[in-house]
Amino acid sequence: xxxxxxxxxxxxxxxxxxxxxxxxxxxxxxxxxxxxxxxxxxxxxxxxxxxxxxxxxxxxxxxxxxxxxxxxxxxxxxxxxxxxxxxxxxxxxxxxxxxxxxxxxxxxxxxxxxxxxxxxxxxxxxxxxxxxxxxxxxxxxxxxxxxxxxxxxxxxxxxxxxxxxxxxxxxxxxxxxxxxxxxxxxxxxxxxxxxxxxxxxxxxxxxxxxxxxxxxxxxxxxxxxxxxxxxxxxxxxxxxxxxxxxxxxxxxxxxxxxxxxxxxxxxxxxxxxxxxxxxxxxxxxxxxxxxxxxxxxxxxxxxxxxxxxxxxxxxxxxxx
Amino acid sequence: xxxxxxxxxxxxxxxxxxxxxxxxxxxxxxxxxxxxxxxxxxxxxxxxxxxxxxxxxxxxxxxxxxxxxxxxxxxxxxxxxxxxxxxxxxxxxxxxxxxxxxxxxxxxxxxxxxxxxxxxxxxxxxxxxxxxxxxxxxxxxxxxxxxxxxxxxxxxxxxxxxxxxxxxxxxxxxxxxxxxxxxxxxxxxxxxxxxxxxxxxxxxxxxxxxxxxxxxxxxxxxxxxxxxxxxxxxxxxxxxxxxxxxxxxxxx
Lengths: 320, 252
Hints:
Chain A: One of its GO terms (cellular component) is endoplasmic reticulum. Chain A: It comes from Rhodosorus marinus. Chain A: GO terms for molecular function: ditrans,polycis-polyprenyl diphosphate synthase [(2E,6E)-farnesyl diphosphate specific] activity. Chain A: Keywords: Transferase. Chain A: Pfam families: Prenyltransf (PF01255). The structure holds two protein chains of two kinds. Chain A has helices spanning 2-18, 22-35, 49-55, 60-77, 100-118, 123-126, 142-154, 171-187, 197-202, 256-287, 295-315; strands at residues 41-45, 85-92, 129-134, 161-169, 221-224, 243-246. By secondary structure, chain A is an alpha/beta fold. Chain A has one domain (39-316): Decaprenyl diphosphate synthase-like (Undecaprenyl pyrophosphate synthetase). In chain A, strand 3 (129-134), helix 7 and strand 4 form a beta-alpha-beta unit. In chain A, helix 2 packs parallel to helix 10 (256-287), helix 4 (60-77) runs parallel beside helix 5 and helix 5 (100-118) packs parallel to helix 7. The longest helix of chain A has 32 residues, at 256-287. Chain A starts with a helix and ends in a 5-residue tail after the last helix. Chain B is α/β, with parallel strands linked by helices. In chain B, 42% of the residues lie in helices and 15% in strands. Chain B has seven helices and six strands, in the order αβαβααββααββα. Chain B has a six-stranded parallel β-sheet with strand order 3-4-2-1-5-6. In chain B, strand 1 (55-61), helix 2 (72-87) and strand 2 form a beta-alpha-beta unit. In chain B, helix 2 (72-87) crosses helix 4. At the A-B interface, helix 1, helix 2, helix 8, strand 6 and helix 10 of A face helix 1, helix 5, helix 6 and strand 6 of B.
């Protein structure tokens, strides 16, 4: 009996160790797809780079660099995990308060990463990932702004998966921008004077006015690494019915096995999440007449989206 | 055996392995939490709520009705949790549920709270939105328990958009996002939470916010319990301690 248990435990340990390798990762992700629903839209707060570096007695720069590598690695296996949209919180507006040296390094690292993504051999092109940047890109260096716009334009026709990178972003600014945009659009007579949740959502970064897809609006899962249990001004509107997964692992150590645990916890919670979402919708239907957008509003939104795409192409210096 | 069936068997076995390891790790997580709680209780670390001038605790409570369909037990437990929060120093407790059902039970919650308020120095007022916060008098810890509905969440932001746009009451013509932030911070319509909750206790099967007011949960610590029955006084103290001592690192 003891021999059997020991052998069983050894097999478990060997497989867990081996799961760091690619073939076993593919097998684990295939097993997840085979066994039930997987989240389609995953949002991630990539937290813990500096603490990871401190634990390994490395400089914080190494932590950020390793964090960037982990994100790129995530892109290579996201399709195996049946993920069609990833939204990552790369840099908050509040992070500008960090020491200048660190902020400058992060900007340089971001420029390097975006340049790498523009290369034809990068995961973005191999996996046909459509990349968008959410946030106040006016606050970042011009080089990064232009490169980000270029990457968005170059990948705009890709249909493999979507990657939304929240850079110089906070959800409050996003919501305030949306409210200001709707207000100004109504004042200009572009949009009819009927405001509801759906109209406001269209003007968020995840909304169609900003080039978003329907799938961008509602993350199925919101993952935060490093053990913190708060949202830190990330997707406050969009995560209303997302399954929140707070993991103790630091972001540079995040891998497919941690993700598989998130999927299992998502499946356990899904029935209750759907029930609560239905009860909320029922309450809103009882209290308000209609949440659907009228036809003329949809046309106006289409025009606004077109204008936004033109502005982006201009920023990318006409390279699309 | 066909290749298809073999593939199914292999994937099924791998899934079972992953599920088992996840189950073992969840047991270990539970054990760790229990040990942390035990150490915390042993050290008798008490959270003095008065260290934070206006401690605000938010409670999301879905499904007060357990399987037998009666909400009485749920109301009693919820009232008890409110009393504990008050005794730990909470000045404001916000109750929320995504179906608006709590607002209909405000009378029952208020009665239950009055029955359970143990200390003479704790006065709890239960009211729907929006009465003024009660003022301190002498050594009375006065706590306001407010019940909000989904209308005070995203609905409030929609109302502000209506007020700022066109012929709305706050209309100023063209505005920037800074104007919007300023307006929401001032809250002239008084439909937003006064302060950001320090701690959000989520009592539901799923760890989902259920459209809780989004504007005010930027830095709120979130603690999840699968049901109200799991809650104890020491768990509340531990959650408060974690919330008040967590490091805020430049917006993260």
